[in-house]
Amino acid sequence: MSLITRTNSSLRSRILLTTLSTLIFASLIISAAVYWNYDRLTKQALQTRVLIEADIISQNLATSILFDDVVTALEILSTFKADDAVLHVKLETASGALFADYNNVTYKKSDNNVFRFRDEIVFEGKNIGFLDIVVSKKELNEQNIALTIFLFLILTIVIIVSFSLSRPIIKSVLLPLLHLHEVSQNIARTRNYALRASVASEDEVGKLSKMFNQMVEQIEHRDDMLEKQVSQRTQELEKLAEEFRFRAFHDSLTGLANRALLNERFDLSVKHALRCKSRFAFLLLDLDDFKTINDTKGHEFGDELLIEVSKRLCATIREEDLVCRLGGDEFVILLNDLSQLDDINMIARKILAQLNREFVINKDRIRTAVSIGGAVFPDQGKNMSTIKRHADVAMYRAKDTGKNQFCLFSQGMQEDVKHRLLIQSGLRPGLDENQFEVYVQPKVNPEEGSVIGCEALVRWNHPQEGFLTPDKFIPIAEEIGMVNEIDYFVIRDCCSTIKQWAEVFTQPIPIAFNLSGRHFRDYRIVDVLENAIREFQLDPSMLEVEITEAVLIEDPNKAQKVVHGVKSLGLGISLDDFGTGYSSLNYLRTLPIDTVKLDRSFVMNIDKNTQDKRLTRGIVSLAKGLNLKLVAEGVENQSQLNTLLKLGCQHMQGYYFLKPCTKGEFVQWYLRGYSLPKAQEKRIR
Ligand code: C2E
Ligand code: CA
Ligand code: CA
Fold first, then answer.
1. Element (H, E) at 481
2. 150 burial class (0-12, 13-18, 19+ CB within 10 angstroms)?
3. What is the pLDDT at residue 524?
4. Which of the listed residues 440, 458, 514 should we mutate to test ligand 1's pocket, taking the one with most ligand atoms within 8 A of CB?
5. Which of 19-28, 63-72, 451-460 shows the lowest mean pLDDT across its residues?
6. 641 Cβ closer than 6 Å to some ligand 1 atom
């Protein structure tokens, strides 16, 4: 509990009050004592005086009593006439009987303001009477009143003197305190910690002022530091806010405008175009195969590439145009103030040319391509979402027409988009509702008239689009990352088919399935295959994986790891579409490949084209040398069959033998004792 009680009165008034009340109290006590003592003494003096007067006459009064002389007694008593204070004197005998009675003129019996004295009358040691004297208090009262006035005057003088004496005390003690108070109030009000209290003395008040000043100095010091810290912090915050503002409108990787700034600038472009009755173009750019580059070369490399692409884009366009990165490898360019539509084509061609030039990133040389879709305001949309959607449509058209292209939106493209969206959104429900079906196509040895295996080829019985072949949905599934699930479905279907066929056919028929390149970027597929083989209790050599060369080129290390993993499970490995891509013969030597599938493009003209013939002959001998099985794809007629056989290719696949069909159809075909077309000419060695 605090010992200090709070009060609202000022220090000055409290000191005055305390001093005055102490003085008044002391003066009153002293006055009371003086008064009381004075009263007692004056009373005593009066009594003594009256009693002396009585003693003087008592001898004569005794004689009067003894001689029973009342007249003399009265005469003697009348001597009191001279004393104004004595009002009444009564002489009594020893027995108490009234002997003589003297009354002064002013005496009234009812007067209470009196003293009474009784004196004995003694004669020769014997009491012979009493003298009763009534004395007025008037004299005493007058004296007391005078004394009271005197005391009051003294008190007044004391108060005045003490009041004037307290001024210097107040001045020396209180004023510095008040000054201190004022300074502290000023500091509190103005927050000016440079203010100081003046130190007028070395006493306690002076020390207090010094301590106060020291405290203020410390606060000032801290305030200074705090102010510095605050200003430093403010600067930091402002810088941060600036950065935030920049980041709010710019892409952190490339420093290009972001979506928010694009929205703003788009609105400005619209206003400007409406005001000037002009047009502007919205170009949507997407790097072709950026995903692959990112996955194979790593994200840091991908980021560097995006930065370099951004630089080239900025260098290609005019100052009044805007380059913006929407995210990933998607860019937007606003081309303002188009004087003629052909300008778009010209700028797009410039961009394509710029981005086609080789990039050197960390000493690594890489080429990339870009697909550009464009839409024009106001012709092809009056708001951002429509324009963007149309540019998007045009961009996909550019991609579909072979990538590294520019396409300007036209109404006819709309249908394509609808179709694409239908496929995209239908993949998941399609898998869940079993709309996918695995078809098979046999690989044959026409000379022996035997089926050496089958290839599994997926189909989609689409509820709206009808029967779809893989080229209609596999690329889209790859783009949206759903191809893995389709492949897993095919793998399980193949496993279960092998199991069923083992009971139907006397001769085992291996099934090959196609794997998207995506699987060769992570090892999960090996686990999936291992689990499937274990679950269906299969002989792994009954399964074969078909992979394309491109898969091996993208990320050779990862792909090779996966290929070796698959091989170690005991599966056969086919190199699909051989001859279309890089035809790196190196893979044939280093990878555990069992079969090479000669691409249909070779087979198509093999009977007419001598170069294709020559190349095929080379591949045949290479395969033989490396102990690889060679299968020619897409054999459609007798002439192709004859030529292939002549060149030494024994294994084939194609419509000429059997088109891809359902497993049921295949089983019927097989069990009905199929007959394969044979060579019609003698084989040349
Ligand atoms: P692919 O692996 O080269 O498959 C052979 C393609 O050639 C098949 O097309 C097949 O129907 C077709 N074909 C066979 N013989 C002939 C012929 O004599 N003439 C012609 N013109 N074509 C013939 P399909 O079934 O449309 O498959 C296309 C591609 O889709 C396949 O090419 C393969 O890369 C991919 N694919 C098929 N099924 C799957 C699958 O389950 N998963 C993955 N990831 N891709 C698959
Ligand atoms: Ca294949
Ligand atoms: Ca093929």
1. none
2. middle
3. 93
4. 514
5. 19-28
6. no
Q: Is the CB of 570 under 6 A from ligand 1?
A: no
Query: Which residues are CB-contacts of 638 (< 8 A; sequence separation ≥ 6)?
Result: 656, 677, 680
- Does 446 sit behind a cis peptide bond, omega within 30 degrees of 0 on the bond before it? no
Expressed in angstroms and rounded, the spacing between residue 476 Cα and the centre of ligand 2 is 18
Work out the average pLDDT over 492-520: 95
Count of positions (residues) in the chain: 685
Mean pLDDT of 88-104: 88
Higher pLDDT among residues 334 and 580, named by residue: 334
- Is the CB of residue 330 below 6 angstroms from any atom belonging to ligand 1? no
Question: Which percentage of the chain shows pLDDT scores above 70?
Answer: 96
Q: How far is 374 from 275, CA to CA, in rounded Å?
A: 22
What is the torsional sign of CA 643, 644, 645, 648?
A: positive
Answer yes or no: are the C-beta atoms of 576 and 587 closer than 8 Å.
Answer: no
**Interval 185-204 mean pLDDT:** 85
| Euclidean distance between CA atoms 460 and 466, whole angstroms | 8
Q: Does residue 477 have its Cβ closer than 6 Å to ligand 1?
A: no
Residues 6+ apart with CB under 8 A from 513: 455, 456, 487, 490, 491, 494, 543, 544, 545, 546
Please give the pLDDT value at position 9. 59
Q: What string of DSSP letters covers 603-668?
A: HHTTTT-HHHHHHHHHHHHHHHHTT-EEEE----SHHHHHHHHHHT--EE-STTT---B-HHHHHH
> Is residue 136 lining ligand 1, measured as CB closer than 6 Å?
no
Asked if residue 4 has pLDDT above 50, the reply is no
